[in-house]
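Support case: user asked for a sample of complex input and structure output to validate their parser. Sending the pair below.
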Amino acid sequence: MTGMRTYDVIVVGAGHNGLTTAAFLAQAGLDVVCVEKNDYIGGAAVSRNLYKDWMYSNCSYVCSLLRPEIFRALELHKHGLQITPFGGSVQFMENGDYFGTYHDPEVAYREMARFSRHDADMYKSYRADTMRQCRFIRDFLLRTAPDPTSFRPRDIRELLHIGSKFWEMGEDRMYETIRFWTMSVADYLDGYFETDVIKAAKSGSGIIGTALGVHSPGTAYVLLHHYMGEVDGNVGSWGFARGGMGAVSQAIAGAFEAAGGELRTEAGVEKILVRNGKVQGVALENGEELKARVVASAMDVKRTFLDCMDSSDVPERFHRRVENFKIRGSSGKLNIALDGLPTFPALPEGSTLMHSDMHFIDSMERMERAYDDWKAGTWSQDPYVDMVIPTLNDPTMAPPGKHFMSVFVQYCPHQIEGRRWTTAEKDAFGQTVLDQIGNYSPDFKDLILHVEVRTPQDIEDEIGITEGNIFHGELTMDQLLFNRPIPGYAQYRTPVESLYLCGSSTHPGGGVMAAPGANAAREILADLRRPNTVPENFGDD
Amino acid sequence: MKSEPVHQGRIESPFYARQKALDTVNEWHQWKGYTAANELYCADTEYFAIRNSTAVFDLTPMTKYRITGPDALAYLDRLVTRDMTRIAPGRVAYAVWCDDAGQVVDDGTIFHLREGEYRLCSQERHFGWLQAATIGFDVTVTHETDEVAALAVQGPTSYSVLSNLGLAGLAELKPFSLMQVRFKGTDLMVSRTGFTGDLGYELWLDPARAEALWDALFDAGKLHGIRAIGTNALEMARIEAGFIAVYHEFLPADETVRSGRSRSPFELGLGWLVDFTKPVFNGRRALAEEWRSGYTWRLAKLDIEGNKPAHHSYVFAKEARNRGNIGFVTSAMWSPVCKKNIALATVRTPYGKPGETVWVEIFYQREMHWNREMARATVVDKPFWFPARRSATPPGRN
Amino acid sequence: MTEHYDAILVGAGHNGLVCAALLAQAGKRVLVLEAASQVGGAAVTREFAEEFSVSACAHLLYQLQPEVCRDLKISPPLAAENIPTIALAEDAGHVRIAGAAVEGVAAEDARQYRRFHKRMTRFARLLRKLLVKPPPRLGTRSRRDLYALARLGLSVRSLGRDDMREFLRLIGMNIHDEVRERFASPLLRGAISLDAVLGTHLGPRSPNTVLTYLHRLAGNSGRVAVPRGGMGMVPAMLAQSARAAGADIRTGTPVRRIVVDNGRVTGVETEAGEVFHSYTVVSNADPKRTVMRLVGARHFETRFVKRIHHLRAQGNAAKVHLALDALPSIDGFSDRDYGARILVAGDEDHVERAFNPAKYGEYSSAPVIELAFPSVHDESLAPPGQHVMSAVVQYAPYALRGGWTEAARQGLFDVVIETLARYMPDLEQRVVASELLTPVDLEAEFHVTGGHWHHAELALDQFLFVRPVSGAAQYAMPLDGLFLCGAGTHPGGGVSGAAGRNAAHTILNRGKGR
């Protein structure tokens, strides 16, 4: 009778973070069940077979943020995960030219110098300055954010740690850091580059997944959020998970099950059960109730408290804060099965740029105008897309000679002017994107076998993330570090005793990083007075 | 508009074909996008060409900027730490330039080509920085690396070789001077400069005439032991001369990520290049403060006992390692001409004063096995190698 | 024979005058040189049409610091104090805001606004503590700076746990979300949004606009006043106070350059070629003008110059002055209402939409506007029975694509009249004379680079420790003897005098307490 079973821990949601929490807790010897509403696991880190023999990474599509410390501690290679680096990006220009980046620094230099020698020479100081910020923030990824209002020794120790990391930069670089955290990516890039297309190329990472434009203050930091990933120590480089992003979730699930954990799919949580301010367990949609000492929710903070709990379960003030937490749907996705490899006549024959991230926008103004459309409640008419063809690196995702194309689209609103998307609008959105790519690839449209169009609303409906936001909450200053998700509740604990958050709504935020899940597990283990199984940051000095 | 795709792979210098013809070992590396020789036959032989006869080294990949305009002098004077008003036309200045924090961005040579016109020559590229420094000056900075072919002609017989070319005025050319001559219908600039610490010259000209120069040079040097050399031989000569090199003794300040990884001129033994009588230059305020409060590092030239090169060694104050290290070796070699085990090291102040004894921890491998040895080292003041011919004018014919 | 002074002030804007007065009070021999024929810089009253006068740039007094009034022993006569704010509605359903009270909105909004106002005022008071002192330096071993930093930390902590958390969250937030969360009334949301972005190159959705809102409140808890005799009255009194303390103020004496000799400032040279000698020169001009034109970039080091070069300082607001033969009719307005500060901003999205074109170098086709009829309070500004309107029009970017040609100016002017005519149908008939000052005009008239009334964009990355740029946030420039005291320094613009006062304290405390 599973209905009567009492677990040590129930983890709600089998996305990569939920699975990570579950795996570390199971490794500590706890009796853990991870429940998932869908009939597949992975949340937004999935490989879906939606068309014939094609595998789509139909939500997240690249993997570099996944912390190597976690990979190693969970021995994910034993559970089938293999991450291969890929590099470069290309910016197609309206005038028929293009701007590409290359692995060889000298070729990359020459390419930049084709547009501006100044920019080419400035790149190394841009890189050094950005890496300095990366190093600064990376140290906090696998740490719990301290509460600046607290006088507890641990918080004070952590605050001093941050303070000393900051102080050791020296006066000038401290100021630069303050500016970096508060400025727009456009202003940041203006300090280094003069060429519009180069700035456009570098600024994409400042807005991906956010409801901000390249001119919005705070976007320089978001840049970092995409740069701080690494593949084999190469900071800022990107990688593909062999077999698609589902391989990440499958591997973490493998580690979880190997440690004795129990995984239950098609087990959507109707309600998180709370009595006298303490969590009791969960009630599933099928009526079944599971009991546990601890519940960890990998759902976003809004879904957890607004959809799966009564407002009376938490203090009113907290409830209001959750309501005001900002999760904004701003990105859509097209997953495309192709009959062959499309050609891009602007590129020379055999260009390595075919393997890279492709973009079809070439100026800061176009970037910003794309955002204006979103603000007006509709999708960008001239969107910023981040397009890759993973099958060029990973032959497992489509039949030989066929290809899978992943197109991330910024901006795409959760709703159209405040109401649900109609089918016609969704088609029109998809067409906007296909047309933009088609402008640079004459044979592209003829090669299309199948297209899956995903608006933030589709992602919300299927996966459950509020507004389908890839980060489970905007990455603005008011929602980062000790403010994430709610000031005073930034240490994975909630006002409800034994209820924890472990999803991307918590520090350090979204991306397939698994750090929130790992940090939450560490806090849970500390509260349960169990030995810690969660690794620390690799040092870097 | 379909544009010419960027060139993939390496660029060939105008001297590449000539070097390739002499090459026997196929040891090349990439230098600022150019293909450059590590060695062409044997680094030791090539090294002795520098010290014993004449060595020819392709300098073309060195980064070169042309600085022109009414404010060229004022601009350079604010850019570098030394007094540029003293560098007359026809003279060359070794200089170092810093950021506002007084940290070295790079070092290089500045050629005063003619009144108000300069060439700045450095290992690294700095167009971004040089461009930013133009704000407020009527000056133009142009990148001309690819437009100027350059050869270093170094060694005791180099004067004889160049004399055979019939270059007028060569005998009177002093160290750190340059002259413009005509050579086979083209302009050729000859400067008495180099990176070897020996008698030597550098030749600068239009790349289109590069091969003609090379051929004439080798013809003129046939009886004087002329040899083309690669980077490995040059590297040996520069350590003997006690010259610092970027990425060995320092990193460009604008490329450092961690705190404390950049260096001030004082920390590189280049205090003599810092002229506080100038009212303003980049880094002046920070350097003045550093001069008052003291600096952290010192560049030390080490004469080490024994014959095992101290590559990557830690430096200690005492033989027994009862205290932390006081620094590390940045360049090391066995000097064939001095028959000394020499090294350049970065040592924490107050250590590293000339005459002081320190200890280096040397790891060396003999038939797979690794050994460790603590070796006594003396900090020396002068370059390890400084022959009289380096500065004699006119130089002797050898 | 040149005269020697203890300090020379370049520019007699209100901050320059405050600084001069305080230095003079401390017994220093002070000379103030002003290019214009009157003191005040951008805080001036001038005739723009025969017999019609207006405060040419700043038109409402928000922030004049009580400390400044106290130190200088002045109390500017006010034609009106605590004037209310009215957000105009096309259907006469105006929203009236006075202090913590709002009329014209639902009871719940009014209740929410009271709470909002109370909380914002509390945070503004905390912010004020930061504004009235020079920002401490980071990373130095100076005991004074460390002490100031510790005080700063303690004052944030002294808010109490909940407020501190809220404060740390709010400073990163945008005003758009904040008003959306709280208020149902579009006009109320629009009014608060406009207040948060007035004079900046930001839209309500831009993060950190709650901070700019607090900055506006911080001067005098958001109380707005109309000085008698126009804004020019304030500097006139400051000048009087400075003169009384012994400062020598010379108007009509533009400074050509600040003289640098052997790496330090030694005085100034006027356009007329006169040289005044001093080892302390305090520039009330904006940072860019000071560095690039008055001193010359070559006297500074490269990275510093680069920072000044990249300082964002392009104004985005125009001024429109109308001479009116009578007050225009506004549906639902009482006589008293004409004395209010009046806002045209339909809602927060209207403000944001108005901002959009400015990002691409275009002016708003549906601008948001802050306006007042100062002649209602002060009869000296217009002939009897007649009036002047002073309006701040947002957004009108300095770097307009294609430049501020006559056609572009007419275009913006027409848009403003059209916009206002929706609320004041007879406006066009009332206008007897008019004037439009784009940021380019403001630059030319007031010698402020970019025509930005804060001298440098007020944004978090140009705030506190890094205002105007890192390395010069403590008023002393990296050139011996040179100081800044204008709005480009901490804490920014507005007729507050705080920058001038902080600068004076810094100069007087030189060499102490290290």
